[in-house]
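Input record, target 12 of the design panel.
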């Protein structure tokens, strides 16, 4: 009976392997490796290792053999078994052979004698250690079960180094590289979204200093902070960027990290003029350092790193005016994940340069009525258009010698936040809501007055806490003027508006944008010691914090959160903080969200019943190849 069960168990596992690797090809591979498996069993006995584990799937060290390489050529190499997954008939299970090499991080010369320790990550105390000697600094480990393993290498005169190896699919065939250095050091591997090594990636430390990855994607930093948290970043113009925050290396130790670059976004589209959609050839389309020109059809194609937001601009006119574009979906950038050799995501962004527009002008002065002259005026669109006739808005302009500014052909039915950049310092001016295509004058004064207030629930009169995202839809306007000054919310229901000129103000929702709440418009004076009270009706937002890692425990870049509320799909990019966490907001009744990144399977996160004060740990799995 026991032999029958063992037979059926072997057949079942064999079928799983056949399904994963596919048909007759797998059979050929299995047959070809059986002889190697016999050699492996012979080697096990010769090396005096433990007998096979009765549990074939457990990540045990029983039956593991550590050999000194023989992979670089010569007579010994011809007898060395192939690496990767193979069928171990004695255990009725898939086992793995993992190879690697150890070398001096400074000179690149192989280290011929070293100690190697292998342990399952789930049970690090049950590891196996062996001294290895090999002229090429190579080693081979046979008989490893599926799971996550930690390999540690030590050599005289060098700091130890360890790496995690994940073995899950029978096709996994890692080659582990250990560059050793003296003192506290950091070695690493830079790969793209396909897990292929990336050469020439810029590696930088938050405290300064850096290097580049070599032809194998490897890099070495000989001097890193000891026992002090630091951030490591990597970037490449063709493969994107990534960041590993809160790294720490013990005194005199050496750590190894793996950085997966975010990938490249391919942006395509057309530049049109007017409602007749006439193509505009020869205009500059740019994003960061990348730029291109539209062709005779007004079409363009540009490749940019997949960042927090795909910022693409058109430069046209004399003097030049920079215009940004939004896609058809005003709630999000409709990025589409793809599998391509050159990029991981695609986005279509069309530009419409002149349709139903307004003229925005005004003056910027300080509290003494002195002009803020010859300063850059940055313009950010903060509210979507009620009428969907525009896809562009100006990104910046400049004040003249008397502090005046003019923006012609600015899309109407929208709201814009203006910031002045002077003497290297940014200062928020306020917001302008352009509800109709007409002439708008908005003057801003950089003064010292402050308006203080608090939000209360219209029904209970209790404090109504608001995140800044909700406050962005509320402004304070001096009576008779178009300039709106934004509120700064503390999150406990209180708010203030700073740097206001003297006058009477009205606090109200901004423009005709869709709001998740309604407030009672309220007037107040500046200066005043009174705290203005604003009555609010609507759903409150909940702020969540997530820590997103991959199966190796490394932080994942290029994150977005996606969820559906009503009939609307909300998509937001997530910024990873120095603590390795990312924050996002949802309505208080939102049941769940999806967190995703290029190259990974989206993870569903249930929010119902969770405590918003606790960090949500999210593990993303690689998209199957």
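The sequence produced for target 12 reads:
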């Amino acid at each position: 009976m026991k032999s029958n069960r063992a037979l059926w168990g072997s057949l079942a596992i064999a079928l799983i392997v056949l399904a994963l690797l596919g048909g007759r090809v797998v059979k050929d591979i299995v047959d070809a490796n059986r002889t190697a498996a016999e050699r492996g069993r012979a080697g096990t006995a010769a090396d005096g290792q433990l007998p096979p584990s009765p549990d074939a799937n457990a990540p045990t060290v029983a039956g593991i053999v550590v050999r000194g390489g023989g992979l670089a050529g010569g007579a010994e190499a011809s007898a060395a078994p192939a690496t990767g997954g193979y069928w171990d008939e004695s255990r009725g299970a898939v086992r793995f052979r993992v190879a690697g090499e150890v070398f001096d991080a400074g000179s690149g010369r192989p280290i011929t004698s070293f100690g190697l320790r292998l342990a399952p990550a789930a049970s690090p105390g049950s590891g196996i250690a062996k001294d290895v000697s090999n002229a090429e600094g190579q080693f081979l480990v046979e008989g490893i079960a599926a799971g996550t393993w930690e390999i540690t290498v030590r050599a005289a005169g060098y700091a130890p180094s360890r790496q995690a190896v994940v073995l899950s699919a029978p096709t996994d065939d890692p080659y582990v590289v250990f560059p050793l250095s003296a003192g506290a050091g950091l070695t690493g591997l830079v790969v793209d979204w396909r897990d292929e090594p990336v050469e020439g990636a810029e590696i930088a430390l938050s405290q300064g200093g850096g290097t580049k990855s070599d032809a194998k994607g490897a890099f070495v930093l000989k001097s890193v902070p000891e026992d002090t948290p630091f951030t490591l970043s990597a970037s490449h113009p063709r493969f994107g960027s990534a960041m590993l925050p809160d790294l720490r290396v013990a005194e005199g130790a050496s750590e190894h990290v793996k950085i997966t670059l975010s990938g490249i976004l391919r942006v395509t589209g057309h530049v049109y003029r007017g409602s007749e959609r006439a193509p505009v050839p020869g205009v500059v389309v740019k994003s960061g350092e990348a730029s291109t020109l539209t062709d005779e059809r007004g079409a363009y194609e540009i490749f940019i790193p997949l960042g927090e937001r795909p910022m693409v601009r058109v430069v046209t006119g004399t003097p030049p005016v920079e215009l940004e574009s939004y896609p058809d979906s005003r709630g999000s950038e409709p990025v589409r994940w793809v599998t391509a050799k050159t990029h991981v995501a695609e986005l279509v962004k069309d530009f419409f340069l002149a349709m139903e527009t307004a003229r925005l002008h005004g003056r910027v002065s300080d509290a003494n009525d002195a002009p803020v002259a010859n300063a850059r005026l940055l313009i950010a669109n903060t509210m979507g258009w009620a009428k969907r006739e525009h896809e562009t808005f100006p990104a910046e302009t400049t004040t003249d010698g008397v502090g005046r500014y003019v923006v012609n052909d600015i899309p109407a039915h929208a709201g814009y936040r203006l910031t002045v950049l002077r003497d290297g310092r940014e200062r928020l001016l306020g917001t302008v809501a352009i509800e109709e295509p007409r002439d708008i004058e908005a003057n801003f004064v950089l003064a010292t007055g402050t308006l203080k207030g608090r939000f209360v629930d219209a029904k209970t009169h209790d404090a109504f806490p608001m995140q800044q995202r909700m406050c962005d839809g509320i402004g304070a306007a001096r009576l008779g003027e178009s300039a709106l000054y934004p509120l700064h919310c503390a999150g406990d229901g209180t708010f203030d508006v700073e740097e206001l000129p003297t006058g009477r103000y009205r606090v109200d929702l901004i423009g005709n944008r869709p709001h998740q709440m309604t407030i009672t418009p309220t007037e107040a004076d500046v200066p005043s010691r009174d705290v203005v009270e604003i009555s609010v009706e609507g759903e409150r937002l909940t702020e969540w914090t997530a820590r997103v890692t991959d199966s190796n425990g490394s932080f994942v870049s290029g994150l977005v959160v996606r969820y559906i509320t009503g009939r609307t799909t909300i998509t937001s990019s997530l910024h990873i903080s120095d603590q390795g966490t990312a924050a996002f907001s949802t309505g208080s009744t939102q049941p769940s969200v999806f967190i995703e990144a290029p190259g990974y399977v989206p993870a569903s996160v249930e929010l119902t019943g969770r405590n918003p004060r606790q960090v949500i740990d999210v593990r993303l799995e690689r998209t199957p190849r």
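The chain is about 10% helix and 45% strand.
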